[in-house]
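Tokens in:
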């Protein structure tokens, strides 16, 4: 079967302005949190993405009404929930698991297909389940479905130290605790900006949440109140970082607008340490043009505020343009290097040091070929590498990119990239 692909002309030099969309990983937990509150919810700066569409399908399965017009989203949660919906989309993305916390808080017996998402590791959900069991939920997994039965008298507050600061488990447990009886303490939580956006939204609806570093104190309330006005979703820091690295790879001058530089301080620090000239203002970042040869660098991914695993592949594309030895260690997902084989098809010459570390001696001379993206952020990294290659690359696996980058081809073209989707 012939598949559509993205044709990418190499030796590009991107330049110009690009506007960042709202954060995929912020709107996903926030739209599931609307389950907690009867009434109307209105959001702005919402990206039009496949994962958002799939999450809204799940809300509709439960009986809610939703409408997304461009980047505005309206959710009407005034109806009683359907019993036993099929949740057909649940297994097509990771964030479907985030309906678990709110529905347990509402004493809703749930049968939910196991989540899907990028194949970047085993992606277990044991931490989500361990925390909910501590709150009295009885949970089993049968035939790839989660059967979750909340305690008859409602969730009880818990004191739970996460063995690992999991983003999704933190989000699910916050949404479970806000209506639980008593005061909960969650320790060793993740506090990515997307999680802080969820906390901000819940507090605006009346949730009692206090954070000190990696500890949350959540005092359960009887009910939350829908906002009378719209809530604007934070900008997507991973998209912003992707554009910054696209400019750096191609040595162009790019102004990234509608972003929050504070969410990218680790990346900005690394690029400045290489010698890139970068100026930041409150909602934009200017990467200045330069033809300099930059030295190699070592990077290690980690939980926020360390270097984000979601920018790992994009940074590898930059490493291939640096003059010297670079190394990259991935500490979050055990299978996030699948794209290295695709880069080596282009002539990157990247070597493995065990399964979680790679190194390369740049600059690599990449020759265009047909390559395939196997997950969302790897796809972005492959585009950046193709833009610096010689010749015209064909990138397959576009369905992954559509999940997480709004108007990707339009924005690439706007920055001067010669790219075109070729349908079979
Ligand atoms: C979220 O995934 C993001 N997805 C991912 O972004 C991101 O890469 C990841 O956080 C880390 O920052 C969304 O927000 C929708 P985790 P999540 O739970 O919640 C292990 C993208 O491209 N773990 O923090 O699934 C897990 O195996 C995507 O937008 C358990 O062991 O990430 C992994 O090794 C890709 N048990 C580590 O923790 C659990 O119960 C981090 O996972 C949960 C996680």
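Residues out:
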């Amino acid at each position: 079967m012939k598949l559509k692909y993205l044709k990418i002309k190499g030796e590009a030099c991107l330049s110009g302005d690009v506007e960042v969309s709202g954060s995929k990983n912020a709107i996903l937990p926030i739209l599931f949190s609307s389950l907690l509150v009867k009434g109307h919810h209105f959001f702005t700066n919402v990206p039009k993405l496949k994962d958002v569409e799939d999450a809204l399908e799940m809300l509709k399965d439960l009986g809610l009404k939703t409408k997304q017009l461009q980047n505005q989203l309206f959710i009407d949660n005034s109806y009683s929930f359907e019993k036993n919906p099929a949740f057909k989309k649940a297994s097509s993305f990771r964030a479907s698991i985030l309906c678990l916390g709110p529905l347990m808080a509402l004493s809703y017996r749930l049968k939910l297909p196991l989540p899907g998402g990028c194949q970047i590791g085993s992606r277990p959900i044991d931490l989500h389940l361990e925390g909910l069991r501590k709150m009295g939920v009885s949970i089993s997994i049968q035939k790839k479905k989660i059967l979750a039965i909340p305690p008859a008298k409602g969730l009880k507050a818990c004191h739970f130290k996460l063995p690992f600061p999991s983003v999704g488990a933190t989000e699910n447990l916050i949404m479970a605790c806000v209506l639980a009886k008593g005061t909960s303490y969650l320790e060793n939580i993740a506090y990515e900006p997307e999680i802080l956006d969820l906390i901000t939204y819940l507090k605006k609806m009346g949730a009692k949440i206090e954070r000190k570093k990696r500890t949350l104190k959540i005092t359960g309330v009887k009910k939350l109140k829908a906002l009378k006005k719209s809530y604007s979703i934070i900008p997507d820091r991973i998209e912003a970082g992707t554009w910054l690295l696209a400019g750096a790879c191609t040595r162009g001058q790019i102004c990234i607008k509608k972003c929050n530089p504070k969410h990218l301080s680790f990346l900005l620090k690394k690029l400045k340490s290489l010698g890139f000239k970068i100026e930041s203002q409150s909602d934009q970042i200017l990467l200045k043009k330069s033809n300099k040869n930059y030295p190699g660098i070592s990077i290690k991914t980690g939980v926020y505020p360390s270097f984000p695993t979601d920018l790992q592949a994009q940074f590898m594309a930059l490493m291939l343009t640096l003059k010297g030895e670079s190394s990259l260690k991935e500490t979050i997902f055990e299978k996030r290097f699948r794209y290295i084989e695709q880069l080596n098809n282009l002539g990157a010459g990247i070597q493995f040091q065990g399964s979680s570390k790679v190194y390369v001696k740049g600059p690599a001379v990449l020759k265009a070929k047909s390559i395939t993206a196997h997950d969302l952020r790897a796809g972005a990294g492959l585009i950046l590498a193709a833009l610096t290659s010689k010749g015209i690359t064909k990138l397959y696996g576009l369905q992954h990119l559509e999940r997480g980058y709004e108007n990707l081809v339009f924005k690439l073209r706007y920055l001067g990239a010669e790219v075109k989707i070729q349908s079979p």
